[in-house]
Structure prediction request, 168 residues.
Amino acid sequence: MADAERTAWRRRSTVRVVPPARPRKLAKVPFVELADGRLQGVVSSGSDVDRVYVSSIASGTHAYHCSTNNNRPCGGLRGMPCKHLHALAEEALLQYGAERVARYLRVDVGAEVDTARELLSALDGRHEPTPAAVVFSRFLRHLSYLELPGSTVALPELHWFPAVGAGR
Prediction:
């Protein structure tokens, strides 16, 4: 394989990292992601430092849910999204940008969604319970990476692509 070909293959075999739309603070919402067909994440409790909530909004149906990490329902869900869902939406807009979040959730393209309030009012969903375990365990796995010492060696679980030439 020629050097130019090898260089071109390396460029194609890497994932493009999308920088955050704007910097955000992690204290209130330490984890937010667009995954598994949902906007989902972990939101710190405002009243108990030992409690976190796992909140989510489904793409397309806009069904929403919020519960503690051990599946106790949020007391703020009273026929409308709670403050944890508002915080999640606000941080998602910071992390990914309004256009990307609206497109992922399949919000009406004519709707203005520059704030969490606008995003949540553009949704036509209802409360639908979803398990918190998958999102919370993914959050804990991400936290474990912070405890690893700095290294240039690839971690096996983060090394998604084969070595140069291995797939040919």
Summary: The helical segments are 3-12, 83-96, 98-105, 116-122, 133-146.
